[in-house]
Amino acid sequence: MLLLQEEKKSLINTLRGKGIIDERILNAIYNVPREKFIPEAFRKYAYDDNALPIECQQTISQPFTVAYMTLALNIQPGDKVLEVGTGSGYQTAILCELGADVYTIERIEQLYNSSKELLESLGYRFHINLGDGTMGWEECAPYNKIIVTAGAPSIPPTLIDQLDMNGKMTIPVGSLEFQKLYDITKTPEKVEYKVHEAFKFVPLIGQEGWNKSLR
Ligand code: SAM
């Protein structure tokens, strides 16, 4: 237990060193038990600042990436947030810790089931759907914020449509090998884009993403 707390503190220090100084986000990362979102074999690495394998050849994102994308969205309590790519459920938990009203979508049934069960067992309240997140979640739109946690070949127009006016979206866009993070703000006049760091994500597969034959 003591060891786990030390490992958590060390991760927080690493993130501070990389420029994450938002105390709300650092507290959320401290509070979410990342080891529970990781397969047994990799649990000893839970508080390393690395992406790790999860079921179905997918990954749990690196804590720095989670922090960076969460910061980009300036998540506030009560924000209605659509997350595309539930994966392990870790990013969902971080958004819930920040008081967001989270709508998360996963395309792989096994991950949908396991993350739903885990997040519920940890007491988080959220909405989850099984399906192609490139199509968003239309019945519940619009969203104040949208976070896409898989790499897209281009920005899905449907997600822009489902973003509320003055809403923000963060999404990795690029090739299958690497992507740049796009921060998007929708204003009444136009859609603004800022391009940030390069990252490596698993592919966003779907109607407005990469082709299904990939995985
Ligand atoms: N947020 C996750 C976490 O904290 O573990 C990261 C998940 S992983 C990097 C990306 C996830 O996106 C994978 O679980 C993958 O199956 C999912 N995914 C890919 N394309 C998708 C789509 N069109 N709709 C929903 N989920 C998708």
Key terms for this structure?
binds S-adenosylmethionine; globular; 215 residues; 9 strands; alpha/beta
Structural overview:
- With 215 residues, the protein is an alpha/beta fold.
- The protein has a single domain (2-214), classed as Rossmann fold, CATH 3.40.50.150.
- The protein has helices at residues 2-17, 23-31, 63-73, 90-97, 109-121, 157-161; strands at residues 52-53, 59-60, 80-84, 101-106, 127-130, 143-148, 163-174, 179-186, 191-199.
- A seven-stranded mixed β-sheet has the order 5-4-3-6-7-8-9.
- Helix 2 (23-31) packs across helix 4 (90-97).
- S-adenosylmethionine is lined by residues 58-61, 84-85, 87-88, 90-91, 105-108, 111, 132-134, 149-150, 201-202, 204-206, 209.
List the helices and strands and how they pair.
Blueprint: H1 2-17, H2 23-31, E1 52-53, E2 59-60, H3 63-73, E3 80-84, H4 90-97, E4 101-106, H5 109-121, E5 127-130, E6 143-148, H6 157-161, E7 163-174, E8 179-186, E9 191-199
Parallel strand pairs: 3-4, 3-6, 4-5, 6-7
Antiparallel strand pairs: 1-2, 7-8, 8-9
Helix pairs in contact: 2-4
Instruction: Report the sheet-strand fraction.
Output: 25-35%
Q: What ranges have pLDDT less than 50 throughout 5 or more consecutive residues?
A: none
CATH architecture: 3-Layer(aba) Sandwich
Number of domains as seen in the coordinates:
1
Q: What is the SS-derived class?
A: alpha/beta
Q: How does the major sheet shape up?
A: 7 strands, mixed
Rg result: 16 Å
What is the helical fraction, as a range of percent? 25-40%
Order of helices and strands: HHEEHEHEHEEHEEE
Q: Give the termini separation.
A: 38 Å
Write down the overall geometry: globular
